[in-house]
Design a protein that fits this description.
The complex is a heterodimer.
Chain A: E1 13-14, E2 17-18, H1 23-37, H2 43-56, H3 62-76, H4 82-93, H5 102-105
Antiparallel strand pairs in A: 1-2
Helix pairs in contact in A: 1-3, 2-3
Chain B: H1 6-20, H2 26-38, H3 42-54, H4 56-64, H5 66-72, E1 83-87, E2 92-97, H6 106-109, H7 119-127, H8 129-135, E3 145-150, E4 156-160, H9 172-176, H10 181-185
Parallel strand pairs in B: 1-4, 2-3
Helix pairs in contact in B: 3-4, 4-5, 7-8
Classes of the chains: A mainly alpha, B alpha/beta.
């Protein structure tokens, strides 16, 4: 399998070893690639959104622009609306502290 | 540890909605992440370079049509990646940047390093490449021209570094070990055997 990530996709990789600074970055990277691979989203659409998001706020950390681009693509394609995301985020944020976080279940170690 | 990070919660919210709508399978997300973490990496590009060093006919095909030649080794993707190989010579040192965003030849170099997408790298590599290369540890002799290539969706560049002297007897497999990611971006040269 090879989703060709030509564009502004640029997660950090340190001499061959990928480095995400937080699990959510790793996750949001994988979500976009999964959507593109399955044809739910055109890579070029995402790429253009990412370029726009980076241009809109050059000081914003790269992965936040990436996440914003994902939301914009989903909203534009009517797949997931901003309202839905807001609501779900609110529900998840209200979970009791110590809730087993999804990212931890999928964790594959913490790099090095 | 990131449970309190609002960005993490938001990404989780997006994924859970996508999963419910049947648009994303979390297991597929796992597989893809693992793929990029373990299978795709600069070693692919290193194999391309080593082959070019040892097989003149391949080198010609690579310079002629990078995407096609790289596909011979099984690297590439369905989206028509326009890969262009550029060769360092005794007269010219090539270096790649993407001023627009951070275009990068993923299938052969894996995931780009953090600095590649920094605004400092993107702007300074165009404005003062020789100086920036020096700061990154590569002094390009004054007699050598530095050529900066700006990546785009139409062309993603792979630098073929110069083959180090004294490696004539080495196999392509061993040579690939000398080709670092940075040397294929053009911010370093290939490793000289025994130098570290």
């Amino acid at each position: 399998m090879d989703v060709d990530l030509e564009g502004p996709v640029s997660p950090p990789r340190d001499n061959g070893t990928i480095v995400f600074s937080a699990p959510w970055e790793r996750r949001v990277f994988g979500i976009v690639l999964a959507l593109c691979r399955d044809g739910q989203c055109a890579w070029e659409d995402f790429r253009q959104q990412l370029i726009a998001q980076i241009a809109a706020d050059r000081d914003r950390p790269y992965w936040e622009s990436w996440a914003a681009a994902l939301e914009a693509v989903l909203s534009a394609g009517s797949a997931v609306s901003p309202v839905e995301i807001e609501e779900r985020t609110g529900v998840l944020a209200a979970r009791p502290h110590g809730h087993d976080h999804r990212d931890d279940e999928h964790g594959h170690g913490h790099g090095h | 540890m990131t449970a309190a990070d609002p960005r993490a919660i938001r990404v989780e919210a997006v994924e859970s909605l996508l999963a419910e709508k049947g648009l994303v399978d979390p297991a597929v997300v796992d597989t893809i992440i693992e793929h990029y973490e373990t299978n795709v990496g600069p070693l692919n590009g290193a194999k391309v370079v080593a082959r070019a060093w040892t097989d003149p006919a391949f080198r010609n095909r690579l310079l002629d049509n990078g995407t096609k030649a790289i596909a011979e080794l099984g690297f590439g993707g369905p989206e028509g990646a326009m890969m262009v190989a550029i060769e360092n010579t005794p007269d010219v040192h090539n270096v790649v940047v993407c001023t627009l965003c951070s275009c990068y030849p993923w299938p052969v170099l894996g995931l780009p390093p953090t600095w590649y997408k920094s605004s400092e790298y993107r702007s300074r590599m165009v404005a003062e490449p020789r100086k920036l290369l020096g700061e990154m540890g590569l002094e390009v002799p004054a007699t050598k021209k530095v050529r900066v290539w700006d990546s785009s969706v139409e062309a993603r560049y792979l630098v073929i570094p110069e083959r180090p002297a004294g490696t004539e007897a080495m196999s392509a497999d061993d040579l690939a070990g000398l080709v670092t990611r940075d040397s294929m971006i053009g911010v370093a040269v290939a490793t000289v055997p025994g130098s570290d």
